[in-house]
Amino acid sequence: MGSREKIYSVLRGAGLTRAGALGLMGNWDCESNLEAGRVQGDFSPYRTGSKLYVSQITSGVISKEQFMKDAKGFGLAQWTYFTRKGKLYNYWRNSGVALDDAEMQTRFALYELSTGGEYSGLYSFLRSSEDLRACVEKVCTIYERPAVNNIDARYSAAQRLAAEIPDGAGDVNTDPGEETPADGQQSGSEETPKVGSPFWPPRGYYGGYQDPGLCRGMSGKDVKLMRSLLEIRGYDVTGGEEFDEQTEKALVQFQSNQNLAADGICGKNSWHALLTA
User: Fold this and answer.
1) Whole-model pTM?
2) Which helix (H) or strand (E) segment is 274 a member of?
3) What is the CATH number assigned to the segment(s) 3-172?
């Protein structure tokens, strides 16, 4: 599966309509050519400047504060404003994957859309509208800060992507709350995964590059299991498979009580604490 199909898969798995996913991707295509490691102004054939930038951030030569305040657009969305880059940095550090990982950045964008009050209307719109032009316009005027006016170019990019990416691309991994089953595992059951079941382990259990964890905006059996464990331990959540604001607050409280990083992301340490606390 190519990078574009993976991005599309994650967006569709989070509940965005086809128009919503392609509208967001059309905007990113004009921003970064859908290159998660691209830094603003790098037009070199091999993106040597971008690769150096990523390596310096990863190694710590460029600090978090420098990354936040250098005013360089970076990544799929060319995040530039210092608070947004700071949140991206924190999300990346907690993900256990590479900074230029396209799926991680896509999940961060979903996190941004679903947790930022200023984007709540846009997030709902992208999960309900089937009007591609309208989705592009909303992204260009609400998600982009400041708003951009080359809407026609971004709409054309979205149309091109629509012709290139069939609906259902990457359906094997469309739910951002689940990983593709490993060899010997099965998929398709609606039951909550349990230790020793074919659907074990849940996303984030092992941590690391391939297993970055659960965060707000996701849904599925893994989220349902996490919510059930929180509820058993007396935290205020309700039934369902949505990682919503209430779930995030409960997880943060649990993490704090367990002396874990209270970041609202259910990764390796949080899973192990939930299962043994």
Assistant:
1) 0.63
2) helix 268-276
3) 1.10.530.10
